[in-house]
Amino acid sequence: xxxxxxxxxxxxxxxNYASRSIKTELRDNLINNIRNGITSFKGIHGxxxxxxxxxxxxxxxxxxxxxxxxxxxxxxxxxxxxxQLLDEYIPAIDGSEINDDPYDPISxxxxxxIKKYGDNxxxxxxxREDRFFxxxxxxDVTISDxxxxxxxxxxxxxxxxxxxxxxxxxxxxxxxxxSIFVINELPDLQSRIQVALFNILEExxxxxxxxxxxxxxxxxxxxxxNPEDYTxxxxxxxxxxxxxxxxxxxxxxxxxxxxxTITAQEAKLQNSRTCQxxxxxxxxxxxxxxxxxxxxxxYVDNKSGISARMSITAYENLFSxxxxxxxxxxxxxxxxxxxxxxxxxxSITGKVELVYEGEQxxxxxxxxxxxGTAAKTLFKNYFPEIKKLKHENLTLLPRNxxxxxxxxxxxxx
Length: 413
Prior knowledge:
Number of domains: 2
Strand content: 5-15%
CATH architecture of the largest domain: 3-Layer(aba) Sandwich
Oligomer: single chain
C-alpha cells in the first residue's frame, strides 16, 4: 500500500509496519548495506580502513558518537551521511511537536489524540532528510534553546498551571525526537548546558524549570569536537564524555592521491570558463603538497590543523588565475604555468594559523615559503639528485722514466 493512502493509525495497522528505535533502524539498515556490498558513506575518501569501520561498529553498537578531529576532516559530512541509513519515510501522529510514534506516543498531545480518535487518529509521513537536526555549539546557546522552557502565554491562554506539561515550549532536542541530532564543536558549549544533556543521553527524561517530565526521547546523538578546544576554548565535562558510547578520531589524507581525489570532488570549477585550461598532474600534486608542507612548517601552528578547504579553494584560484591571464592576452586555451601558482596565495593566507615567528614574517611570506618548499619536495620526486663527479685515483708515473706513452696507451693502463 502506498504511504499516500495510509492516513490514519487504522490504515497503518493493516500494513506490516513495526515501530523501531532510531538506533535499531540505523543498525538494521547498515547490516543490510554491509551484506549487500553497498557503500554507506559515499564521497568520503581516505577513511576506508580507519574512521568508517569504527563508525560502522559504533552504529552496530547503537552508541551515541563523538567525532574528534581537527578542522576540515569531514566530521560533519560523516554525520550528515548517516541520514542515508534511515528509512525513507516513517509515520508520526499528525500535529505532534515531537514526532510521536503512532504506536507509542510519549507526549501529552499524542496520548490525548489516540484516546480521542483511536484508530482514526490522523498520521503524517516524515522523509528521512527531515530527520536530521544540527546545532552549532556557541557560548550563547541556552537550555531553553536545546531542551525547552515554560511558555507563560500558553499557560495564560489555556488557563493552565505552570506544573502542567502542556505549558512547555519544547526546544530543539525534543522536537528532534526519532531523529539524528548533531551538536558541532561540543567543547564550546557551556559546562552547565553540557550537564543538562546528562539525563537525555542516559535516562531519557528532561527537566524544565524545576519540574521533571518523564519523556523517553528516541535520539541518535552525534557530537563533533576539535582537540584544540580542550585546552584553548573549552572542554567536554567528564560525566558527559562517559555517556558518549564511542569516540572516533578523524585524520587528514595520508597520500597525495587521496588528497587530489577529495579536491577534485569538492572544487567548484565553472563549466562556463572563457578559455580551455589544461592542468598537468604536477600542478595538482603541488596544490596538495602545500597542505602537507603546512602541517609540518615551523611558521604554522599545526595544532589548529590545515583544513582540506585550503587545497580546494587554492585549486579553484589556480584555475581562475590561468583564466585571468587568458582574458588579458586574448588567448582561447592555455595550460597552468608556474607563475599561476602565486595566484593561490590568498587561499593559503586565510587558511593557516601562524605561530609568533610566522606572524613576524607575515602571512604572504609564509604562503610563498610553503609554495617554494612544496616545489622543492616535488622536484626531488621528478628529477634525480645530481651528484658530483668523482675522479678515479691514478698512479703517477716516475719523472725519470725513459718510456713515452701515448694518451691511448695511458688510458689502456
